[in-house]
Write a structure and sequence with these properties.
single chain, about 325 residues, alpha+beta, Alpha-Beta Plaits, 3-stranded antiparallel sheet
Length: about 325
């Protein structure tokens, strides 16, 4: 019984997977993180833990084993009970239980199970295809000129010296200056408006010419090829065996061609929420058929393949 593989499959979709009479593996979502000293960016993930106190059989793991191995529920329960007795015996003898892509279990001095999680897989499907990366440190430089400007920037008041002047003449010239400034401002605003209007008209003309050129380049074909009718069998089903996700669509197209050459009904099923192009080996309407195919693909092709349950138009 490939118990760790069954647990691993369920951890992608559930936050708690219980091994009856043994304990439970728990997951908790962790946000993306940045390491302060190394400037490394880590994508969001599910952190793993183990709780020996949660041993009540919720039927999740046994039903999954029964579905995959095509055996009755009672038979799956008996097989799992035998495996649990064997696991407890190994721990009692001081051995370490290693669950692939999950972690290691050992007994401590108080005969309690200690869990050391594995970090080889990220069980958060939303972050599928994302990996850590290191960014150079961001340095900020403040120029001396900016500091000087902030220091000497002041509002200079307008003052009138206490000289004897002709009050009437002063206000007369001041009124003329205000009118002149208003006329100049009006003219400047008109000039700015005319420039904006000119730029808008020129932009519209350029867009019109560009659209015309694009249409001619796209749709005017001097020697068209004869029409070809293709009969395509559209795949259907909500169970999709994921082969990978790619940031560049060209790479996803290459992967589809590669899998199709190997005999798979591969196709692209669109982007995930991170903008990555997802490629699947095939899609199935039956859950049983999907997981049977998944087991074969993991043994012969890709051990990291997994089943995405999603309705796709």
């Amino acid at each position: 019984m490939q118990l760790e593989h069954y647990i691993s499959d369920l951890l992608y979709r559930y936050d708690c997977v219980t091994i009856p009479e043994f304990g439970s593996f728990l997951t908790q979502r962790q946000s993306a993180q940045v390491h302060d000293s190394t400037n490394a960016f880590y994508p969001p993930k599910k952190t793993l833990s183990f709780n020996e106190q949660i041993q009540t059989n919720d039927g999740l793991l046994i039903r999954y084993i029964a579905d995959v191995e095509k055996i009755p529920f009672e038979t799956a329960l008996q097989n799992l009970s035998k495996r649990v007795k064997s696991l407890k015996s190994y721990l009692a003898e001081g051995e370490t239980l290693s669950f692939e892509n999950i972690g290691d279990l050992t007994f401590n001095a108080e005969s309690k199970i200690e869990f050391n999680p594995s970090y080889h897989l990220n069980y958060l499907t939303d972050a599928f295809g994302l990996s850590q990366f290191v960014s150079p440190a961001v340095t900020r430089e403040v120029y001396k000129e900016e500091e000087e400007v902030e220091t000497i920037e002041k509002v200079i008041p307008l003052t009138i010296t206490p000289e004897k002047r002709n009050t009437t003449s002063f206000f007369k010239y001041a009124a003329i200056a205000v009118v002149a400034l208003g006329v100049a401002g009006f003219g400047f605003n008109n000039y700015v408006n005319n420039v904006d209007q000119h730029n808008q008209i020129a932009q519209e003309e350029a867009n019109t010419q560009l659209d015309s050129q694009i249409q001619e380049a796209t749709f005017v074909i001097s020697n068209p090829l004869p029409a070809i009718t293709l009969n395509v069998n559209k795949q259907s089903g909500n169970y999709h065996i994921v082969a990978g996700a790619f940031r560049e669509e060209e790479n996803s197209d290459k992967k589809v061609s590669q899998l199709q050459d190997q005999g798979f009904k591969a196709r692209k099923i669109g982007k995930n929420r991170h903008g990555l192009h997802q490629v699947v080996y095939a899609s199935y309407t039956s859950r049983e058929d999907a997981f049977n195919a998944l087991n074969a693909i993991r043994k012969e092709q890709n051990k990291d393949a997994w089943v995405l349950i999603k309705a796709i138009d």
